Amino acid sequence: MLERVTVYFDYVCPYSWRAAELFDMIAGPLALDVRWEHFSLFQNEHGQGTTKPDAWQLWNERIDETDGYGCKGLLPFLASLAARKQGREAHAAFRLALQRANHRRFQPFTAGTVTAVAEAVGLDVPRFQHELHNPEARTVLAQEHMRALSRDVFGTPTVVFPGGQAAYLRLQELPTGVEEAVELFQDVRRLMERYPYLHTVRRPRAKGN
Description:
The structure is a single chain. The protein has 209 residues and is of the alpha+beta class. The chain has one domain: Glutaredoxin. It is 46% helix and 10% strand. It is built from eight helices and four strands. The protein has helices at residues 14-26, 41-46, 74-84, 88-103, 111-120, 125-132, 136-150, 178-194, and strands at 3-9, 32-38, 158-160, 166-168. A four-stranded mixed sheet has the order 2-1-3-4. The chain is globular. It starts with a strand and ends in a 15-residue tail after the last helix. The model has no long low-confidence stretch (mean pLDDT 93).
């Protein structure tokens, strides 16, 4: 039986990409059912008071093609939700491929990039394009973001382990292989589950960084 892990992530976040690579390595060996939920760092930082009628909300913004971040991350979120309409496997392939396109190959989050990624992973592109412009996706994004806030998520990636313990987990580098990745996940999980009162562990920032 698979154990469920939830990861709250933002496409513009390099730590979210590294978390994606980590789970790509360990999901099979550890029999994990990894669920990916969208959480906007920009909205969280700049959209204070989202319950007010006049509050700024990312999901109500127009897409600006001159913005390489896809309108503060909105475009990759909407593309992600469009891919999700074609099934979990299709979404998983699209999500990781889009993260790699941006964080490995430094491709901007543009309509051209998300469409090329959709084609590369074998999505039904006309269906993808239709869903990309479906206003329902903006509502779903708002719901996922607000649900994350209700669970005290403040940054990405936030990992919720099978036992319910959560950790804001940032990797500076990727593990050297599957064995190390598995050990890393298990060690962090044991730490969080054994010491539920542990709130923060953080390394001092080295000089020059």
